[in-house]
Amino acid sequence: MSGRERVLGRVRRALADVPRDERPYEEVIARDYLREHGQRTPAKTADLLARNLADYRALVHRCAPGEVAATIAGLLAARGARTVLVPAGLDPAWLAESGAERVEDRAESTPGELDLVDSVVTGCAVAIAETGTLVLDGSAGQGRRRVTLVPDHHICVVRVPDQVVASVPLALPRLDPARPLTWISGPSATSDIELSRVEGVHGPRTLEVVLAGAE
């Protein structure tokens, strides 16, 4: 029996005597707290997202929806990327102008193989302005979690204003808690006790965000 099976078995035993008619957690906890700090127009919300992403050292680029392909091609070229990982369901138009070799996201790909890929391009499920956070849920165009953690360069496209919300409480109703959610606030970084910052330890060293549709 694996460790996972033992843990899940303990959870099942702990829940065995919980009455089926017990009120669910969502009904017991009041949700009347403040859901957004102030009121902003969609444009100002996108501006806040851009500022907070940059504060986390992400590189932010704005473009019109029709300029996504050219923007991504320019970012890959500037990076010198020869290969780019393509999650299933990614809009093919996004890479139409890139000359980089496309690598398909395969379930059998090993971490070592993914580490050889220069860049990965994904979409996202939602972007949170107040925290500068991108949330990926593994659906079409976003790939599995490890494809956004192993390659050293991640380009994420956010559709503005459709995928941008002001706060975490406004983001949660858009997300399915049963899906594998990955919350990203800037490139991977960690600090030791002396606050020496090291990037790329447990994720991409460089995160570039394309805000498509932002004015």
UniProtKB/TrEMBL annotation:
Identify the domain of life: Bacteria
What region holds the LUD domain? 111-211
Transmembrane parts of this sequence? none
InterPro entries, per the entry: FTHF_cligase-like_sf (IPR024185), LUD_dom (IPR003741), NagB/RpiA_transferase-like (IPR037171)
Protein name, per record? LUD domain-containing protein
According to its UniProt entry, this protein's organism is: Streptomyces tagetis
